[in-house]
Amino acid sequence: MTGHVLAFTGTALVAVYVLDAEGAELRLAETVRSAGRSYALPAHYPVSGRSPVADAFRAGHPLWLTPTELAAYGPAGPTTPETPTTPGVSLGALPLGGDGKGLGCLVVVDDAPGGIDADRRGFIELYAHHVAAGVEAAGPQALTQPKPELGPTLDRLRVGSFALLLDSGRMTADTQVLELFGIPGEGFDGRVETLLAVTVPDDVPALMTALEPDLLTFGTAQLEFRIRRPNGELRWLGLRARVETGADGTPRRMLGVVAETSYLRPSADEVSLVQRLSAALAGATTVRDVGRAVVGALRDPLGAGRVAVAELQADQLVVAVLTPAEPTAWPEVWRTAWRSEWPEPPSHALPSLAEALRERQISIWPEGADLEPGLAGIGPGGLAVLPLPADGRIVGVCLIGWERRHEFGPEERSLLTATAGLVGQALVRAHALDAEHELATMLQRSLLPRKLPELPGGVAVTRYLPATMGLEVGGDWYDVIPLPDGHVALVIGDVQGHSAAAATIMGQMRTAIRAYAVEGHPPDVAVAHANRLLVGMETDLFATCCYADLDMEEGEAWFVRAGHIQPLLRLPDGTTQELDVEGGPPLGVVADAEFPMTAAGLSSGTLLALFTDGLVESARLDLDDGVRRARQALARADPADPGGVADELLGGDSRREDDVALLLLRYDGMRVRPTRASWTVWRLPDAVMHARRFTARTLRNWGVEDDLDVALLVTSELVTNALVHTRGEVRLSLTLTADRLRIAVNDMSPRTPVKPAAVDWEATGGRGLLLIEAMSQTWGSVPLSGGKQVWGEISLSSPWEERRTEGATRTRDRRTSR
């Protein structure tokens, strides 16, 4: 094995120095020499003295010396029995350990008059990281004992090297790398795929990220993975590699070393912890879920006081979870950034953290480490910073801090390394899920009503919850459509599937049914028209729908069902029932399908629930059981709070396989029913006069005296416009509610009236709509079957109770006079 170490490093001597317990000296712990060479190194070096080993240790980076540069150090270099110094010898000193915790130095000596070449330097620097892991696993105290238990260091460390040419993808590997992978020397064809073939499938993506030419990134790659040897043995290997660039800055080749790291694997308890974390991360669908899984898996087992998980977006830490969540538990730099629920501190405000992220390696600082307050306050007893790698980049960071002094063992370091890789991949996956789910939800909600209209005699509430177990947008929709004469249409529907096509069809169906309803078509005709429209689209998708036309004055409802789930009723006494609504086929299946109507009466206090199948059916819930549960939730809910009833129906299941749309109406009945009257306007020369007389007579009977002049002016203009600009029948309608008078004129022209932009003094027309707008609180035009209705609403100056009293007095006076 000695020959292996020297052949790998290409040197005549390799030695390990470790720091003593007092931190004052670097002591020689192990030396490997080539046969016939008598080079020797001092037994110890003062840390504060001048020597290649001490200088490299203090600087924290490798020191490479040519014979001339080494001679300047005098007797501090290698010697032979014959001479105190050795001319013509090159030396390299490489610090072991990092993260503010120096372990010692690796020293190599070689007969190289021109110095150790660049390729060997690259391999030796990568090799030093594996030696450092072995030293840390054995413990520096063990290395300085009279009979040291060296552990897997130097000749006991099984390590090999490889080089990968990036332009061709060809790899050269020494015999030790092939032996570690269990590949015969003559059986290696120089292809990366040959190494991937013996890698455990779960670890192949990570290894591909490090070795595939198309996926390579600049800098140093580090990972651990498992391979399956021909005899079935499972072995852990560690890989470290760096990418070299050419003169033009493009990647040219990769140099790497592979070592066996089974001795660094965690104990059985730590394995179970990683397994629990893996299981929790597998079910994490949001970035917040990932953070909670990390906190739940690590905080208590590690005895940590604070844990933070954050995404790295540009220079900003977007925090997913902080525990404890109180601002006062965190240093000032975190509290000043506490904009909402979680802070977003810039990483440049924490230079030690920014440096750890640039190095892409776990950083561990013991108690009393010299850190800026923003980090020292997180872990006064010890702090671990875990950069979270994924796809060749750092995507986030996990901070774990301890209140009291915490000792970091090699097993815990290995555990944190494994944790970082798992969390990084989960964070990327959850971020993608978050983004796609947010996009799907935004698209879905943009196709649904932004707000519901206020209904006379009832309260409507809706809920829409997108599926959490799928990412594509669904086709569930709802709508509440105010109709003339105190009617309202309630619509719930579901387009087959989850896709952009389903969302598109959903938007078209909702718009079509709304248009047919506003035009005045009865429920069965509106649904039949929508069915023919969907059939004509020649799509493979179909839709289900339930349409209810409710008279808010009388409480009478007409239902039409197209392949949809039956609606539910909660009666005022608390009993529930499933309405037996006769149904037709789903929309888009049969062009000439009929959709019969079913009548039902609602009494004041009744709750009507329309919903999609996602509420009552899933892979874990049978439809009948789901409907039974919905009826039970409806029965125990408080009808005084329709929003609370809707939330009770949705329940607390956060993992939904399908979208859920819910439309709930509490029918109260109208306290004051509208009073209506209508008049057919004949096309006679004095038609407007007759319309004014009808309006005046009707309003006086209703007790509307104060606003009579305004009402007559609006009537005149509406009737005049209809007679002048349309043909066919014209009908005048008056509707009186508690505080409003609605004057409407129906005609047979579908053309919407257009208000003129300006009217000059000499114009003989064009002022009608301007007068209507000026005298009415609101006005508008709605299409009706074969025509339109133009209307204006007047806000009445006298309350309804006063008008009712005056009307009763006039009636009594007339009876007395008789």
Automatic annotation (TrEMBL):
The keyword NADP does not apply. Its EC number is 3.1.3.16. Gene3D superfamilies: 3.30.450.40, Histidine kinase-like ATPase, C-terminal domain (3.30.565.10), PAS domain (3.30.450.20), PPM-type phosphatase domain (3.60.40.10). It is an enzyme of class 3 (hydrolase). It catalyses: O-phospho-L-seryl-[protein] + H2O = L-seryl-[protein] + phosphate. Residues 286-437 form the GAF domain. This is protein-serine/threonine phosphatase.
